[in-house]
Write a structure and sequence with these properties.
Helices cover 77% and strands 2% of the residues. The chain is mostly helical. The protein has a two-stranded antiparallel sheet.
């Protein structure tokens, strides 16, 4: 970055009045929801890993990890101590967070989709058990495990290149919440992220509906076998509920962030990890592991 670009980057911070009480109030709401969601998800993840009576598929664990990365991405400025100072955060830090927040929705959308995909495979196996250890099964497991992170890294690298080419557009957003890429050509990156996430959510909801239809059509056959014990019906319901929240929540967030209401959009963004915790962290075995004194 040249001296001219650095000066332009710093000047952006001086042009905005960041001392308004409204901005600090919005920031407190945003960080509170993010931290509550992160703490809850971390507790759930650790419980699933270390509790002897709690077992979860790797796609479920991946789901929790991705939402923790999501929370860290959006709260990076808070950890750095540069959240509310009058000057803009240092350029490398601001660019890093901009890369992370553009890529984070892709990561969580893909891990949620992988979770839905695994539920479909579980249902399919219950209806028609496959041979164990087949190359096809190994390939799909590798895909569900690695694809979210490959795409996440791809988006990070793409945004990094754009932010490096246009350093004057990397700045802290209104409300002091996080750094982003503003105006100019790099704004296309936000539209690409939104379009990609929307496509994943659309496919995911379609798969949710298809799973529901297959369950309905095969319910009698499933009830007459030992398949109901193998199918995580509670998880299917919870994933469907969360998929609905994802579509409505992320859709509203993108709408509000399109110059309608940044506060409303940011609040929805911050609520999503907390919703993920409430939906998946209130399952009976997890609550039982936490209530150890009742044993």
């Amino acid at each position: 970055m040249t001296e001219t670009d650095g000066a332009r980057f710093c000047d952006i911070g001086n042009q905005s009045d960041i001392s308004k009480d409204e901005q600090h109030a919005e920031l407190k709401v945003f960080l509170t929801f993010q931290f509550l969601g992160a703490i809850g998800l971390l507790a759930v993840l650790l419980t699933a890993v270390f509790a002897r009576k709690v077992y979860r598929h790797f796609t479920w664990l991946n789901f929790c990890i991705s939402w923790l990365i999501y929370c860290v991405s959006y709260t990076l400025l808070a950890f750095s101590g540069q959240q509310t100072r009058r000057e803009q955060p240092v350029y490398p830090l601001c660019l890093t967070q901009a890369c992370l927040i553009y890529a984070a929705p892709v990561l969580v959308a893909m891990t949620t989709f992988s979770l839905v995909l695994q539920l479909w495979f579980t249902l399919q196996n219950a209806l028609k058990p496959p041979a164990k250890g087949t190359p096809r099964q190994t390939f799909r497991d590798v895909f569900m495990l690695l694809a979210p992170y490959v795409l996440w890294l791809g988006f990070i690298i793409a945004i990094l290149v754009l932010g490096t080419q246009h350093p004057s557009t990397v700045q802290r957003a209104g409300g002091l919440v996080y750094c982003t890429i503003k105006t100019g050509t790099p704004r296309v990156s936000g539209n690409v992220t939104a379009s990609f996430v929307a496509a994943i959510l659309l496919v995911m909801v379609g798969l949710d509906v298809y799973i529901g239809v297959v369950l309905y059509k095969n319910w009698r056959a499933l009830r007459g076998s030992d398949c109901p014990r193998k199918l995580p019906f509670s998880l299917i319901v919870r994933v469907s509920i969360f998929s609905f929240f994802c579509v409505v929540g992320i859709g509203c967030a993108f709408l509000f962030l399109s110059e309608v209401s940044f506060f409303a959009g940011n609040t929805i963004i911050a609520l999503m990890p907390l919703i993920a915790f409430l939906v998946f962290g209130t399952q009976r075995d997890i609550l039982g592991a936490w209530c150890f004194w009742r044993k």
